[in-house]
Design a protein that fits this description.
The protein is mainly β and 262 residues long. Helix content is 0%, strand content 42%. Strands 10, 11, 12, 13, 15 and 16 form a six-stranded antiparallel sheet that branches. A five-stranded antiparallel sheet has the order 1-2-3-7-6, with no helix packed on it. Strands 5-4-8-9 form a four-stranded antiparallel sheet, with no helix packed on it. Strand 11 and strand 12 form a beta hairpin. It is globular and about 50 Å long. It starts with a strand and ends in a 33-residue tail after the last strand. The structure holds copper (II) ion.
């Protein structure tokens, strides 16, 4: 919720499950005042991610800027339960930050088990396959390939300045991880599919949830995966692949100053 003196402060206390709510928040600066000056990252000043604690639901929203640093977003928490919201921001004069807050929707709550580890995701007739392994402490290349009706999709549309946005969260504590896209539309080398490449660095072994937003036919869809880090090491694996306390991830925050894609 707080990093480098910047703090995410929800202004909306009550959210009922299944009901659209105008959720408002501010980010306060080290001087205690709401931040009003933000750098644009991937076409937006604020990227707002909301997941359920069991990581079975995901939303990527873009709040609207109001007066005095207040941001508002129409938010529906689909069911009763516990949720985590992340604001991915870059206050001018600071660095890129991801601040988190827990949200609650009152009612009977039955957490679902983490979805099985899988390299294939289906969404709206699209199949997305995941190639590459998450290696703790190392930058890991992940390639996501999109196909529809068995055919590779080669006309993905730019969405927020990229052909895909990947959010990676650690299942154990919802740590928000760094993911860097490899190339962007218009750079003369990045093709509009079927493959989208990212570099991700995970800090530890364990399970992660990956959420890929991609746009095709004018619609943004999300493909989700569960990936396991550090379980596929061969006997000859480098000792540097051992789990490390990388500073690039911590619960609900993100200490690196490099912009990242999602
Ligand atoms: Cu966004």
């Amino acid at each position: 919720m707080s990093q480098n003196g910047y703090t995410l402060t929800p202004l909306t206390a009550t959210i009922k499950p299944g009901e659209p709510t105008d959720f408002a928040f501010t980010v306060t600066a080290p001087d205690g005042r709401p931040v009003t000056d933000y750098q644009v990252q991937h076409d937006k000043k604020v990227h707002f991610i909301v997941v359920s604690r069991d990581l079975t639901t995901f939303q990527h929203l873009h709040p609207e800027e109001g007066a005095n640093g207040v941001w508002t977003v129409k938010l529906t928490l689909p069911e009763a339960g516990v949720y985590r919201a992340y604001a991915d921001i870059f206050p001018t004069g600071a660095s890129a930050l991801t601040l988190g807050a827990d949200l609650f929707a009152a009612g009977d709550y039955a957490p679902k088990a983490l979805p099985q580890v899988s390299r294939t995701a289906e969404v709206d007739g699209y199949t997305v396959t995941l190639d590459g392994d998450l290696t703790p402490g190392k930058s890991s290349k992940l390639t996501l390939k999109v196909s529809k009706d068995g055919k590779p999709v080669t006309d993905l549309q730019p969405y927020l300045g990229a052909y895909g946005h990947l959010v990676a969260l650690r299942a154990g504590d919802l740590a928000y991880l760094h993911v860097h896209p490899d190339g962007e539309p218009g750079d003369g080398k990045t093709k509009p599919g079927p493959e989208i490449t990212f570099y991700a660095e995970v800090p530890s072994t364990g399970d992660y949830r990956l959420f890929l937003d991609f746009q095709h036919g004018g619609v943004v869809r999300t493909a989700d995966f569960t990936a396991r880090a550090g379980q596929a090491a061969a006997p000859a694996a480098s000792p540097t692949a051992a789990p490390s306390a990388s500073p690039s991830a911590s619960p609900a925050s993100d200490h690196d100053s490099t912009p990242h894609g999602h």
